[in-house]
Design a protein that fits this description.
about 375 residues; FAD/NAD(P)-binding domain; 2 domains; eight-stranded mixed sheet; six-stranded mixed sheet; 19 strands; EC 1.-.-.-; FAD-dep_OxRdtase
C-alpha cells in the first residue's frame, strides 16, 4: 500500500511525487490520461522571476529557480534546460517597467535596465521602435514534457508507481481522515492523497467533499517552422506582466516570443476564462501573430507550423494552493499555479515534502495555505 497517492501526473504532481520519494515515502501517481499530457504538454516551459511582482509568489519563484538545478542534478536527464535570461521591452514609455523592476530588485531579483541600443544588441532582430527594457539573467526555460517524464522516471526508480488511464472520483474517509482514493479502476488504500489535478483540481476537491476555488484559464500558443538561431532570450513586452496579474475573464493578449532547442519559435500569450471550451479561435491567433510581428518584424515572413492551447489552474488571489486541507486529515493540495507551474514546480514539490514530513519549509508556506478565504471561502 502506498503512503501517498498523487492525483495528477503533470509537472506539479510529478515534482511532488519526486520530492516525496526523495524524502523516503512510498508514492503512487495516477492520472486520467497519459502522464504529462494535459496542461504540462501545453506549456512553454518558462522558469521565470521577471513577471512576478514582489510578494509570496515571487519569493516562491526565486526559491524554485534556485531549486531546479538541484532537482535536475538528481534526475541526470536532458530536459533542454536553458538558463538564457529574459528581456522585457517597452515600445512607448519605460516608466512603469522601470518602476516594476525597481520593486523587484528590492525583493532580491537581478533586473538590469537596458537602453534601446543595448536591447538591440541582446536581440538584433527586435523592432527599432523599442525604447528600452530590463534584462533578467535568471530567467530560464526547459521542455516541460521531458521534465515531467524525468521526474516520474525518478519516482519509478525509487520503487514508486505511475498509472495512466485512472480517473480519481473521490476519497474514502473514516471519520475525518482519508483512508484511500476512489478511482475508475477501483479503490486504492492510502494514508494521504495529494490533489495535483491542475485546472481540474476544483472538480476533484468537490468530489472529495472539500471544494476549493480553482478555475481553468485558457491560453494559446503559435509555433513557427524551425529557423536558424534568431531569438536568443525569452522576450516579451511590458504588457505581459499586467496580463499575468489580471483577474479579468475576457480575452487578454500580450507578446511573448522565444526559441526552442529544435529551432521553432513559440509565440504567446493569451488568457481568457471560458471554462473548458477548447475551441481554437482564429481571432486569438491573429492577435498573437500581429503583436509578435510588431515586436519582431522578421516574423511576418515566417510560416506558422501549428497552434496549441491549454487550461491553466487559476486561483482568484493569483497564489498557488499548497498544503494540507484543514477540513479533512490526509488530503493535500498542490494546484492553482496558473501559467507559472513549470517554474514553480521544483519548490512546490519540495514544500509539499517538507510540510508532509515535518521539516522546516524552505519558503514561508503560510500565504499558500489551503484554508485561506480566497480558496475555500469562495468555493463554499
Amino acid at each position: 500500500m502506498p503512503e501517498v497517492v498523487v492525483v495528477g501526473a503533470g509537472i506539479i504532481g510529478a515534482a511532488c511525487a519526486e520530492a516525496l520519494t526523495h524524502a523516503g515515502l512510498s508514492v503512487l501517481v495516477v492520472d486520467r490520461g497519459d502522464p504529462a499530457s494535459g496542461t504540462t504538454a501545453a506549456g512553454e516551459g518558462n522558469v521565470l522571476v521577471s513577471d512576478k511582482e514582489p510578494g509570496p509568489e515571487l519569493a516562491l519563484a526565486i526559491a524554485s529557480r534556485q531549486e531546479w538545478p538541484s532537482v535536475l542534478e538528481r534526475l541526470q536527464a536532458d530536459v533542454e534546460w536553458e538558463p538564457k535570461g529574459g528581456l522585457v521591452v517597452a515600445t512607448t514609455s519605460l516608466e512603469l517597467l522601470e518602476k516594476f523592476a525597481a520593486s523587484q530588485r528590492d525583493a532580491g531579483v537581478e533586473a538590469i535596465a537596458v537602453s534601446s541600443a543595448e536591447a538591440l544588441e541582446l536581440e538584433p532582430l527586435l523592432t527599432p521602435r523599442v525604447a528600452g527594457g530590463v534584462y533578467y539573467p535568471d530567467d530560464a526555460q526547459l521542455q516541460p514534457v521531458l521534465a515531467a517524464t524525468a521526474l516520474l522516471a525518478a519516482v519509478r526508480a525509487r520503487g514508486g508507481e505511475v498509472r495512466g488511464g485512472v480517473t480519481a472520483t473521490g476519497v474514502r474517509q473514516a471519520g475525518a481522515r482519508v483512508v484511500g482514493l476512489e478511482t475508475s479502476t477501483g479503490f486504492i488504500p492510502c494514508e494521504t492523497v495529494v490533489n495535483a489535478c491542475g485546472p481540474w483540481s476544483g472538480a476533484f476537491a468537490s468530489a472529495a467533499g472539500t471544494p476549493v476555488e480553482v478555475l481553468p484559464r485558457r491560453g494559446m500558443i503559435l509555433v513557427t517552422a524551425p529557423l536558424p538561431e534568431c531569438v536568443r532570450h525569452k522576450v516579451y513586452d511590458a504588457d505581459y506582466v499586467g496580463a499575468v496579474g489580471s483577474g479579468e475573464a475576457d480575452l487578454q493578449t500580450s507578446t511573448v516570443v522565444e526559441s526552442t532547442r529544435g529551432g521553432t519559435i513559440l509565440i504567446g500569450s493569451s488568457r481568457e476564462r471560458i471554462g473548458f471550451d477548447g475551441t481554437i479561435r482564429v481571432r486569438v491567433l491573429q492577435e498573437l501573430a500581429a503583436k509578435a510581428v510588431g515586436l519582431f518584424p522578421f516574423l511576418a515572413d515566417v510560416p506558422v507550423m501549428r497552434a496549441y492551447g491549454g487550461f491553466r489552474p487559476y486561483a482568484p488571489d493569483h497564489l498557488p494552493v499548497i498544503g494540507a486541507d484543514p477540513r479533512l486529515q490526509g488530503l493535500w493540495h498542490a494546484t492553482g499555479h496558473e501559467g507559472a507551474g513549470i517554474g514553480l514546480a521544483a519548490s512546490t514539490g519540495r514544500l509539499i515534502s517538507e510540510l508532509m514530513t515535518g521539516r522546516t519549509p524552505h519558503v514561508d508556506a503560510e500565504p499558500f495555505q489551503v484554508g485561506r478565504n480566497a480558496v475555500i471561502g469562495a468555493a463554499s
